[in-house]
Protein: Cyclin N-terminal domain-containing protein 1
Amino acid sequence: MAGRAVFSLPSREQVNPRFGQVSLDILTDILSNLNKRNKLHLQSVSDLCGCLKDSRLVERVFHLCEELRLNPAVGYQAIEILERFMAKFTEDLIRSQKGQGASSEELIFQTLKKKFFLSVLSSVQIASKLDLYSHISAGCRLLFHQRAALGLEILILKTLNFNVNVPNPLTYVETLLEVLGRNEARVPVCELHQLCVCVLRLVYLQRETIYHSLLVSATGCSRPSHEQRAKFVSVTEDFMLLGVGVISVAAFIHHISTWEKVVEELTGITGISGQSIMEFAYVTLMHITKTRSV
Structure:
């Protein structure tokens, strides 16, 4: 049985959030907290942010979550945990090997290579434990590497100082939808949510292409400079912008006649200009139509 993982998966329906159940005071606090955490994150971004959000890795994580029948939010949470862990772990490795010569680079590479797959699995495991609707331990029995996976899970937690409950993109989308539905009762929030889940997934799977198109549109340069790319990282890491952008795309697809009203409401909620929201929506919609026509 070495090298194999046997899954025993319970059949269950996808759990969707219940909108309109949260009091206004709590909802206001949640939105304010997300906004503060987003701004704090944007103050500390580097040009290395997003390096692990490669489409192949994102697809692998999403597929793993689907196989385990986990809530979609788990996939996004796992990606955030994995990226933060690998950045900090690599930084610690480099610091520990400083002054060891060229051989240290190969040692660091081999260490990362050896731990990477289990790091992905352990990140999903941790993310599932943070989600109220996911029970990975009940749906999956790992017959191999169980001890190693647990050890790496502990390593991730310690490396990140147990700070793993960070907001993920879907949290922003669902919170903004909740506020949108509260402000404008005619908005079909539940229907938009279903579309948003699909749009957000597409944006994450095609992240590099979509954000490159946004960068080209913003700079007017077909080949943006390194400096322009470095400055644009704050855009690629802005979850609030991503949230309103995804909702605006979903609103356009759902009913174009009410799209501008939704964009106006999102601007009022977040302070993000309607032009920025529409530009994000335009680039994403163009990418969707190109993808469908291929």
User: Anything to note?
Assistant: The first helix runs from residue 24 to 43. Residues 1-13, 137-144 have pLDDT under 50 and may be disordered. Residues 201 and 268 are 25 Å apart (CA to CA). Residues 169-293 form one domain.
